[in-house]
Design a protein that fits this description.
By secondary structure, the chain is an alpha+beta fold. The chain folds into 4 domains: 2-102, no CATH class; 106-195, PAS domain (Beta-Lactamase), CATH 3.30.450; 200-280; 288-438, 2-Layer Sandwich (Heat Shock Protein 90). Helices cover 52% and strands 19% of the residues. The chain contains 11 helices and 12 strands. The strands form 3 sheets. It has a 5-stranded antiparallel sheet, sandwiched between helices. A 5-stranded mixed sheet has the order 7-9-10-12-11, covered by helices on one side. The chain has a two-stranded antiparallel ribbon with strand order 6-8. It is elongated and about 170 Å long.
Amino acid sequence: MLTATIFLFFYTLTLEYLITPFLISLIIIFQIYLIFKYIDKTNRDLASFLESIRFSEFTRSFKIEGMGSSFDELNKAFNDVIQDFQKVRTEKEEQYQYLQSLVRNVDVSIITYQRDGKVDMVNNAFKKLFQVNTVKNIHDLTSISPEFVNTLIHFEAGKSCLVKIQEEDDILQLAVSGTEFKILNKSIILVTIKNIQSVLEDQETESWQKLIRVLTHEIMNSITPISSITSTLDLMFNDAKNNETPPDKETIEEVHLAIKTINKRSNGLLHFVETYRNLTKIPKPNFRIARVKEVLDDINLLVKEELKENNVDYKVTIEPESIEFHADTKLIEQVLINLIKNAIHALENTEKPSIHVKAYYNKRGRVTIQVIDNGQGILKDVLDKIFIPFFTTKPKGSGIGLSLSKQIMRLHGGSITAHSEAGNQPTGKQGGTTFTMTF
């Protein structure tokens, strides 16, 4: 149309028209303006499209109708590409939210941080495990455990390690593992932490149960024949005494005494084995909802006289008094009585002996019962062995009380731990031991 109009413009000039060429020239100028506007529209749409991609702004749309078929196809292509980008972005956003939710709610504690200690992310399991709201730097955990902080700072990617954290009323055995990667030239360490205290205790319990089964089996195989032989020899001896030509009386008496000794020892060993066999035959707990106060009141009646005889100041604190737990009260009473009796024995030769039984909710909301005495305490190397079957520091102790208590607590899905400070008589330092039952 522009070419035809220009041709018409020159044609009118040859006819020596004046007004007509002027009007045609105005038409030419208007047509040129429309061409530039058309090209400008294309450039603006293209710039807008590229800008949407650059800034990830996929809410824009391009007008399709009214600009001609070529513009319609161009704008439709733009809109299709924008929708595809928007779809990809939505899928990535959903995937990101999914991964975020997964990381936040997985029961394994996760923390990501840089080598300088700056923390990028911690999940809910980590916050719950260490009872913190926010962690901005690894060194913020120093109050919980300097050893744990040192492990994270010097952590080597691809390796695993165990860290033990002893708290006042709980113990954590942490399995720490992780990896290291780079994002935008920034080194990030991702560490996963799992509290395996219950797993270790389960394995420990299973190990010593197997040991007990083996020991009882082997001992029974030896004791049963001995008992049978001694009984037979005793009968033979009685027959020999009735013979007309009996053996020398002194010899017979010696043999008889030996037989009685062997028989007595055999029966004693049989009783010994049967007693320890009971460690693997704890009855299945009969769970019920019970008030802690009622259990402690019943125990108070059972140990009242023994406490009075030993002049022990006995105190019970329950906060709040309405604490309830799901347990077999008979088995739990057995554990508490054992702990209190152990505490009474530990208070021998202690000035102003006292036992304090506390019941409360710990910081993780778990029902906790503590038996605290102010005795001489337990040495550190002994403290690590007190829950091992048959280990005892008492001259007449059996070494099964605490082992039995630990197994009962495991059947309740809980744990029992000990914390002790050894006393020192020359310096006047007072010791004490705390046994903590956590349900």
